[in-house]
Fold these 2 entries.
Entry 1:
Amino acid sequence: MSTDLVVSDLVAGYGDAQVLHGVSFTVREGEVCAILGPNGAGKTTLLRALSGMVKARGTITLGGAALTGRPPDAVARLGVAHVPEGRGTFMPLTVEENLRLGAYVRRGPSVEEDLERVHQYFPVLKKRLKQAAGSLSGGEQQMLALGRALMLRPRLLLLDEPSLGLAPLVTRELFRIVRTINEEERTTVVVVEQNAHLALGIAQQAHVLETGRIVLSGTAAQIQADEQVAQSYLGYRV
Amino acid sequence: MAGFVQQVVEGLGAGAIYASLALALVLIYQFTGIVNFAQGELAMFSTYIAWQCVAAGMPFWLALVVTLAVSFAGGMLIERVIIRPVEGAPELTIVIVTVGLFIFVNAAAGWIWTFLIKDFPNPFPGGALEAAGISVSFSTLGVLGVVALVMGLLYVLFQYTRIGLGMRAVATNPASARLVGIRVGRTLALGWGLAATVGAVSGVLVAPLLFLEPNMMGGVLIYAFAAATLGGFDSPLGAVTGGLIVGVAETLAGAYVGFIGSDLKVGVPLVIILGVLLLRPQGLFGRAAVERA
């Protein structure tokens, strides 16, 4: 069965302030989709609508199952892992507890296997298992957030600005790992990112969001080559 | 010297009771950020349920089990019906709601069982353990034992079970807890049920020492507040330690500070609350709100 993510006519906002005005796109199973756009375009809101954190109208389906109207915990149980803005770390809990919470909706021996797998992706976390997560550096916390998301064995991974506040070297490492995860686990990924270069580097498809509407869609290569995108988001002319 | 140790032991006995109610306060505060002013009254109501069961001919320990179960369900129900609608409202609104609950529960108990005092059976045998000139009543030992047991059970629940981990996750970051699939509403209700159960234990422990009447928890609640403030409102271990310290301080002040005596003893927790808020607002075991970003 395909686990394509199909979003159509998505409208969402906060109270009276409508942020998304009819967003439609499809992400094929196992692909990485990058959502680019300036501040305030609605990128974070889009991810929040996908995971049920904000109320949305329109339809969202993952592998045929409707996500629209479900609360975030129900969406998570359908296999959607959202790494939110600010990383969502459980600060006073230990690194290991944070990871185990990622697998909260699952039980059994597979949880231990997944812990092992996360340790392989992020050896730095393994050294800090008993440490309070709040004491980790920003980069380590972002890795923890990603590790926690993996513990769900997600069908769909939503990443909100993974590069935010991180050193360039750490960011590149993080994107390398996201790509590995996508290739090895065939996890579908939607990544929202200001750093268009990095995001396009791992994506097959990309969409540019402006004031709540998709203004440009294409393959990552097409978007990369687009003159206007280059001027607006990549900082150079093609 | 023996006299002093004797006073300390008695202080610990009283402190264990404050500790158990403080524990209930801290449980709710941790999950919801709500200071539940009605906690003492809920404990009192639970105690009446135990009394009613015993009066109906139930053996004490069975009555206790029934009471704890009813309290748990009652706590969950209160969260659903009374607290849920004001979830996320300004703090003052929630404070007023819990004060209203205080008055309502108090009046309801008076209406059902009248304000006449009632004898409550002491589950522990009379007599005392004598050693080195100090006598510790079985009742005090029993109270200390029960509070230690409750503390131990909560520790195991929070540290070693999946539900406990989920509860701690909700307490620290509810939005993120939702994203990993935890049903936050259910967890909050569970927290209230748990707190009501722990509170019921404190009511049942205190009733044989005082008398059972609708206002019996008023004083205990103030001591529990002092205990929770001293230990830190976000630390169960702190609540228990705070309770014991408050109990001992109160007893010693009453016994050795002439002008305090037994009349001004009630002032001790207020002095403690004021002192802590001035010197160390987060309490002995509390976390000050600083974290690495």
Entry 2:
Amino acid sequence: MKSEANSAPGIGHADRRWLFEGIGLTVVIVALAILFILINPRFGTIANFINILTQASFIIVMAVGMTFVITSAGIDLSVGSAVAFITVVAFGLIKGGLNPLLGVVLMFGLGAFLGFLTGSLVAYVKIPPFIATLGMMAGLRGLALVHSAGEMHFGLPVSITFVGQGVLGGVPVPVIISLAAAVFGAWLFNRTRFGLHVRAIGGNREAARLAGVPVNRVEVMVYVLMGLFTALGGLIMMARIDSTQATIGTAMEIHVISAVIIGGTSLFGGRGTVYGSVMGALLLAMMTNALIIAGVDFFWQLVVMGGIVLIAVAISNLREQRIPALAHFMRREPPGSADNEPAREPAQQQGGTLS
Amino acid sequence: MTRENIGAMDAAKVLNVIGLTKSYGGLTAVDDVSFEVFEGEILALVGDNGAGKSTLVKALAGAQPPDGGRIEVNGELRQLNSPRDASEAGIGCLHQGLGLVDTLNVPENVFLGRELLTRLLLVIPQLDHRQMRERTIELLAGFGISLPRLNDPVIRLSGGQRQTVAISRLLLQDVRLVVMDEPMAALGVEEGRRVLDLVRTMRDRGISVIIISHNLEHVFQLADRIAIMKNGRLIGVVNAAATTRDEVVRLITFGAATQSEAHIEI
């Protein structure tokens, strides 16, 4: 991942500080990995690293989508419930004899539709994203339970389980899919008009509107995209464990949002990095894995994750000088006084983060 | 009638405002205002707070459509019901907040809403970052300015640099008239001087400028003509070279018909 970040010319914001942000998180991850290996050598096996990547895969996929949502100054609390709803419906139909490929298409269609619904509530009915997606979260969980309360589905066709369990050239298919999703997401975020518009409406909605950005349409598209990534995450998850149930994905939104926040995307909108979100998801998966190997109770894992998220947001606020008491010490050199300096040329533009 | 014909008949008149009126509830903020702006002219709009300057400017920017009156741009009657309409008519507006997105970098701000695209693998449209960056450098160079950190979010630029970015945005849109509401407010002396230079550069390129300012020193340094507003009415347009500061202050304070109006005020 790291070399990718440094060698992708033109991709990314080409802002040195943001590059350091990406590298900073990467360094933390490497340092933690070394620490864990020193504590318990079992952590350091190739098999375990592949395991971590696989565990992180569906969170990575959804974190890529969530990066767009949070950068647009939104939030989506409904992703866990959406995974449950989409997978129980699709699972039931596929088990009932629906062509697996059509089943997958249906999953993406459902994801897009749910996103369209959420996005319309946010953009046109003007319901704050937190509330709109809280409603979707409860509603979709309810629908999933109505559809198959207490049932546990098993036994998908191999064509589907391959998505979650297959291996290509020694690399698990979910890992390949999540990597592809991350690269696609980073491209969309940094290199397309849509990505620019998402960053613009998150940064200053009114200015974006005055500049001619179709803000409502972009906002709806953000949630549609989130829905598609949610469907992909759900597909990987369902295929991997070859089962689903109405309670699947509980508290998943916490993991996904945490990964994005740890990755450095601003909760206030406008600033985000897909690369950071991927790194955030990896960090969380690594911590969970290490805690499991160390035999720490699941409930304590949640406590640790909560702590990491709070620390990450605190660091981010510190960096953005949002904490008045500390802003004084964080101040950088005053801007200005350099209007007529010769522009430093592209050397600095190249080699941005894959973010 | 073709555009060339109009141009021949009335070459220099960029903006013609006739009987513009705008009310808020019972208050008439702009009352039957008529004036014109010529090509490459800087017209300063002065008056006390509440004189109607901002309302007038918002009508020209399409931000608040007027209740009555006509606006002609280059001889064509225009309905300015949205910022888009104004932009299409060739009127650019520099808002007090500049309309920049703080988190985006310089080229992204300059090109937001009119991005340059290239094709990935000949089919997939994507942003042409390089082209946008080069065009931005060109635009800035036209003002003799080069920003050292084009890739920084503009929130990290100084007030004057942000002004430059906002003006570059307007130039890209091929404007004929730029409307500026207090562009020098909240700027330091040096920064303010730079903005004055920018306005002059625009004028030298044949772009007309309407500028609201409370700073009469700036007004006299810049303006070709000065329009004075009071209580929603345009009480006079004077030639900057043919008047004095005291005279303008007197008009702002007491209005045109000194005796009677002053009397009413008391």
